[in-house]
Write the structure tokens for this entry.
Amino acid sequence: MKINLAPSSTNLKTSKMDFISKELDTYCNDHTSPECEVLRELNHETHTSVLNPRMLSGNLQGQFLTMISRMVRAKCILEIGTYTGYSAICLAKGLPADGVLHTIDVNEELEDIAQKYFKKAKLEHQIVQHIGDASEIIPNLNLKLDLVFIDADKKNYPTYFDLIIDKLNTGGWIIADNVLWSGKVIEELDPTDMVTSALLEYNQRIQNHPQLENLLLPIRDGLMICRKK
Ligand SMILES: C[S@@+](CC[C@H](N)C(=O)[O-])C[C@H]1O[C@@H](n2cnc3c(N)ncnc32)[C@H](O)[C@@H]1O
């Protein structure tokens, strides 16, 4: 059965532009640790039974998220945009035994599949799932965050930034996905394109923020990484 993914096409990673050649992409994948069994199964089930499977991070970005989570020794992570739980598992894999990841998604139809794979990955005790609109849930989260992964509706990235910046510990990190938006960020802006507008605003706000140091990495559709000084 195909799960119906309600939100609009602004969430899609389908417009992904190839920033590097297919051959180089294959080479990078071939020289990256392979997916574990649970993530391979989740990837397969997402592609066979859930709409818009290209929203799933995939192995290259997933391994990157696990490494970052380990490298920054995050104990409290917030993810905005769970989808079927792939990136949540990748991030949670990097947590210490007493660490926790909170993940939010507005689509309640995805709750069961994500929960099923959190259990298969034996991470269900470290992952707290929130179902609802992230802009309503985040203000009620009493958390001091070490790492935030923003990967939900792009037009709300600036709003999410405003909601999390005071909850982020000094030395904490924010990673935002899709900030190159298939290259649209350097094309002439269509004034009706609210998504590209919001991403331009997000990138500029990070670039100008006096409390942040940042790096825009052209991995997949672009990851903006920043650290609170
Ligand atoms: C790109 S997908 C997330 C992919 C996931 N992080 C991964 O890599 O496997 C975006 C998700 O954001 C969710 N979303 C969209 N708008 C939202 C909102 N206002 N609040 C919470 N989640 C939202 C969608 O339902 C969708 O599952």
